[in-house]
Amino acid sequence: MDSKAEKYEVVFGIAPCVLALTQGRRKPRKLFVKDGEASHRASVLNVCEEAHRRGVQIQRVSKNDLDKMSSGRVHQGVCLQASPLGYLTEDRDSKPNAGDTPLWLVLEKIQDPMNLGAILRSAYFLGVDRVVSSLHDSCPLSPVVSKASSGAMEVIGVYGYENLEDMLKMKMAQGWQVVGTVGAEGEESQVPITLCSDFKVTKPTVLLMGGEGEGLSQQLLSLCQTLLTIPAGRELFRGIESLNVSVASGILLYSLLSSRRPAR
């Protein structure tokens, strides 16, 4: 890759590359394809067809070259040099699914790209209306996140805010409810704690998920009107009494989105 490549990054994997080419959110520059029989697989040929349709140069390279481009990660025989994706900062009106009460997912300080990717994949699949993230102490929307999301990051826009507290106060003033999360052990709290299965989305709702380890900050916890908990199916040993944030997000999103009532 030449010096012009500094303005680009390398997306890897079949789904991320196809969606990076077709969604129009990136500027693709060059597609690198593993030379040999693997390049004749239907999935790889589909990526090549999309690149050819858009006038993107295709170059055959060795597996070793692709391994280097993807830093040793699973690339499935394709890497795409393309402009980077960033957090959206321009506030655009997002329309909820027709007739549904809107649900936003707000992420505070998610630092593991694998977690962020898995969360985005669940949010896209389940039908979240908007995903919001703190810009400070959060991982960037990198190719690793895109691969972990199976390409969902290429489709779903993620909004970034310098100050989540101000944004949440604005939503509350507009009549939205803010819902946080708490572990299965039920920590002491002055905010009502509700089993996720008992909670119904009857009005526009923001679900807050905190980062790995520390969870939600006190500033955001203080804004929550309800804290949701996922009940455990057995007595838990200390140290493993909580779920990974991406797993918890998927369970909570499914529970809330299944319960929401049509908007009036």
From TrEMBL:
GO molecular function terms listed in the Swiss-Prot or TrEMBL record: RNA binding; rRNA (guanine) methyltransferase activity
A Pfam family hit: SpoU_methylase
Annotated Gene Ontology cellular component terms: mitochondrion
Gene3D superfamilies in alphabetical order: 3.30.1330.30, 3.40.1280.10
Subcellular location: Mitochondrion
Coiled-coil positions: none
Transmembrane segments: none
Protein name, as recorded: rRNA methyltransferase 1, mitochondrial
Organism: Notothenia coriiceps
